[in-house]
Design goal:
about 90 residues; alpha+beta; two-stranded parallel ribbon; two-stranded antiparallel sheet
């Protein structure tokens, strides 16, 4: 799997990294100029818990936002689990 970084305003591709391991991402982003790193305000991403470390180490001024797809996916899964429990124990 790859890590895809896109500008949220212009939708232009910033970078495509072939490795999603956290140390690779940190090393790659730390090669960017500090002036660019401090401009990052938000990171929209999936629910990968390790990305929290990426934010703290590389983008100290950024906030994490979970993308809508993964929020809806989690809600749908929770409703399906509840639906099956209700059907089984009714």
């Amino acid at each position: 799997m790859a890590f895809i970084a896109i500008d949220g305003v212009t939708h232009e591709l910033h970078t495509l990294i072939d490795d999603r391991r956290i140390y690779s991402l940190i090393n790659d982003f730390l090669q960017s100029p500090q002036s660019e790193i401090t401009k990052v305000k938000y990171l929209v991403m999936d629910m990968n818990a390790s990305y929290g470390r990426l934010i703290k180490v590389v983008f100290p001024n950024a906030e994490i936002i979970t993308d809508r797809f993964h929020i809806v996916q989690q809600i749908t899964c929770a409703f399906n689990v509840l639906r099956v429990k209700v059907l089984l124990y009714s």
